Amino acid sequence: MFSQTAWLNSFLFLQKKARSKYSATRRLLLKSKLLRKAESLLVKEKEQKDLERENTLRERAPPLKLSGLSIQELQELCRDLHHKIDVVDEARYDLNIKVARNDAEILSLTQKIYELKGKMKRPNLKRVRKSADAMLGSLDSRVMKADFKANLKTVKKEEEKKEEVTDWRKNVEAMSGMEGRKKLFNAGQ
């Protein structure tokens, strides 16, 4: 029995590849059969989920038997139910917090991926029509910007001191044998 994704994939395959192999009526017939089958699978899956939900509800929350109980027993039952509600609420709250943290982490990681790939979303730009006077005015403003940049003070950035990393392959022969061990021992003292 095929899963829903298999039916969908075969449906998409028929739409893309089969155009040269099958006639239009044959394609339409296959397409309608696939859609009917997928619809029936969706209905069956929904019924199965509803049945599972009802079974779990019956299992987790059996019906209450309140007839014939004294006031003390009813109060004890209420306390027990309140305790169970508190436990479930604590678990739900903890799960909501975990989900929120995971969502935030996923969002930050996807943003980092986009930054690493260099694919940032660019806004759609609209075309602006300028008159000749506006174009000449923009040329004058460019000259003024260049002058403004020339008058700015330069700031020297402090370069971070990087630890010199040597290639271990260059030094293998020099450090091999007893002489190399002696050098390492002397360097450690």
Helix content: over 70%
* Overall number of strands: 0
The largest sheet is:
none
What multimeric state do the chains show?
A: single chain
Q: How much of the residues is beta strand, in percent?
A: under 5%
The whole-angstrom Rg is 37 Å
Give me the secondary-structure category.
Answer: mainly alpha
Order of helices and strands: HHHHHH
Average pLDDT score: 77
Poorly predicted runs: none
The DSSP helix count reads 6
Q: Per the principal axes of the C-alpha atoms, what is the gross shape?
A: extended
Distance between the termini: 73 Å
Features:
189 residues, mainly alpha, 70% helix
How would you characterize the overall build of this protein?
The protein has 189 residues and is mainly alpha-helical. The chain contains six helices and no strands. The chain is extended, with a radius of gyration of 37 Å. It starts with a helix and ends with a helix. The mean pLDDT is 77.
